[in-house]
Amino acid sequence: MPVIIRDEGPADIAAIHRVVEAAFRQSVEADLVDRLRADGDSVISLVAEEDGKIVGHILFSPMSAPFPALGLAPVSVLPERQHAGIGSKLIREGLKRAEREGCRAVFVLGEPEYYRRFGFDPALAAGFASAYAGPYLMALPLNGEMPAEKGGIDYAPAFAALG
Question: Which of 68, 123, 130, 156 has the lowest tally of Cβ within 10 angstroms?
Fold first, then answer.
């Protein structure tokens, strides 16, 4: 059965929590998703459904930046379904939707080796002041070039609880 990528619905919330918790082997990221949703900071929230079961999830939240930007975090896939392209499908669909909604760039804090395949680049984020600045903070312009090369950026308030 093919994997279907669709918007999160109210009936998916408990399954999303379980998927995120299983993917990260702890509840911190699942609690973050719940908090972002509760705070109204869930701009794009997609699930991957396979045979009627939620097997993956991705969330994009608003960022404070010099231009319309979103933060991609987290992307989660059940451990037994990882390395099957589900995370990539979620990311690609989320990026398409972000661009359609007028977002100019997406930032992600993650493994460069993984996220470079989608066009994310640490060099594009290097000029931005952030609590997360460093080699794992990457940016992806959605219309070909970054609308600014420097400035301050910050994730939604729920991220501050991560420490």
Answer: 123
- Per DSSP, the residues of 131-152 read TT-STTEEEEESSSS-S-S-EE
The tally of domains found in the chain comes to 1
Q: What are phi and psi of 106, to 5 degrees?
A: -125, 135
The string of DSSP letters for 21-81 reads HHHHTSSHHHHHHHHHHHTT--SEEEEEEETTEEEEEEEEEEEBSSSSEEEEEEEEE-GGG
pLDDT of 118-148, one tens digit each?
A: 999 999 999 999 999 999 999 999 988 899 9
In a domain, 11, yes or no: yes
Please answer whether residues 67 and 104 qualify as being in contact, where contact means their C-beta atoms are separated by less than 8 angstroms: yes
How far apart CA 18 and CA 149 sit, in angstroms, is 38
For 7-66, write each residue's pLDDT tens digit: 999 999 999 999 999 999 999 999 999 999 999 999 999 999 999 999 999 999 999 999
The domain of 20 spans 4-155
> Residue 54 forms beta bridges with which residues?
49
